[in-house]
Amino acid sequence: MAVKTAESRLEERWRDILSVHARTMCEIDRVLHPHGLGASDFEVLDILASEAPGQGDQCRVQNLAGRVHLSQSALSRLIGRLEKDGLVERSVCAEDRRGVYVALTGKGRDLHTEVLPLQREVLARLLGGRAAAHGSS
Amino acid sequence: MAVKTAESRLEERWRDILSVHARTMCEIDRVLHPHGLGASDFEVLDILASEAPGQGDQCRVQNLAGRVHLSQSALSRLIGRLEKDGLVERSVCAEDRRGVYVALTGKGRDLHTEVLPLQREVLARLLGGRAAAHGSS
DNA sequence: CCGCATTCATTGCACAGTCAACCAATGGCT
DNA sequence: AGCCATTGGTTGACTGTGCAATGAATGCGG
Q1: For residue A105, how far is the Cα from the chain centroid?
Q2: Are A48 and A103 in contact (CB under 8 A)?
Q3: How far apart are alpha carbons B74 and A121 in whole angstroms?
Q4: How far is A108 from chain B (nearest CA, A)?
Q5: Which keywords has UniProt assigned to this entry (chains A, B) (predicted)?
Q6: Largest interatomic CA distance in chain A
Q7: Distant-in-sequence, close-in-space partners of A88: CB < 8 Å, separation ≥ 6
Q8: Residue contact A18–B21, C-beta within 8 A
Q9: A66 near B CB under 8 A
């Protein structure tokens, strides 16, 4: 029966992850949406903002791809949208001319500063006390 | 500094959830794909299979909607696909004629039995020992 | 009994994401 | 130097999902 319990525990844990992930993701999306952002958009903005506090916060696309759980194509389109909204700027990398640097604009930085507390609040509210709710609901 | 730590811990925990979720989800998808299923498909099949071991494993759509983290529309389409593949069957609920019962077919049950160990194996492999991998890689 | 608000499920539309194909640039090899 | 395999990023076609609107059935209130 110990084996059975372990198996059940695993499944239970998976369901829990699924649940927490869905709830939190959805809530972040909901909070960020009025500002024209989705959860993935914020994640990229956040990485860009924290990666290089200075003005040279240039980051190669492949570097980003490693940090967010998105395919290169999704990331490319996402950056395209962000660029269209004037939040980031693309520039060719001089060293590797097939590489592309992505940098936050002032507007992008402002928006990030504005929405960061909102995201943090959601995290605190939904992930706050408990490490892994394993019982009901 | 305690405050700062708590905030960092929250964010770290969130990133961890994101990471584990993405990895596991992706792996389940990859393992199930050869059998023509996605992770969501399996989840519905799994609920249907475990919900009523007898032959009357009928389950209303709204009942399913509460257990999987999908919108009603997504669920409806998903059931549509499953039905098209002959894995489940829809039947109108006699009591509430606006409700729909969903039931596993023999084929659906067989497939579930076939792929269940695969999903379990992934869970064991990726969620296996550690509650929350917090270090490298 | 008839209308009206509510609930269950499905469908139209838009959007984000993946996979595969593609172009551009680089680096090694002959 | 010229060629070929490899890497970096973008684009096309397709799939899956959510929101909002719709159709159908129920139940309540006049």
Answers
A1: 18
A2: yes
A3: 29
A4: 21
A5: DNA-binding, Transcription, Transcription regulation
A6: 62
A7: A44, A45, A48, A79, A82, A102, A103, A104, A105, A108
A8: yes
A9: no
Contact assessment for residue A119 and residue A12, using Cβ atoms and an 8 Å cutoff: no
What's this model's pTM, rounded to 2 decimal places? Answer: 0.85
B134 falls in which pLDDT band (50, 70, 90)? very low
CA of A98 to C1' of C5 (A): 61
Residue pairs spanning A and B at CB distance below 8 A: 49
Task: Answer whether any strand C atom is within 7 A of the Cβ of A81.
Answer: yes
* CA atoms of A119 and B136, how far apart (whole Å): 25
Cβ atoms within 10 Å of B64's Cβ, excluding its own? 20
Helices (H), chain A: 2-32, 39-51, 61-67, 72-84, 106-127
**Could you report the per-residue pLDDT of B43-69, keeping only the tens digit for each?**
999 999 987 655 456 778 988 998 999
Distance of alpha carbon A109 from alpha carbon A112, whole angstroms: 5
Tokens in use for B50?
């475990």
> In this predicted model, what pLDDT tens digit does every residue of A9-68 receive, in sequence order?
888 899 999 999 999 999 999 999 999 999 999 999 999 998 765 545 677 898 899 899
Give pLDDT, residue A14.
Answer: 93
Token duo for residue B32: 């199930």
Cα–Cα distance measured from residue B112 to residue B65, given in angstroms and rounded to the nearest whole number:
19
Question: In strand D, which positions have an atom below 7 A from any protein CB?
Answer: 7-13, 16-21, 23-26
By C-alpha to C1' distance, D26 is nearest to: B96
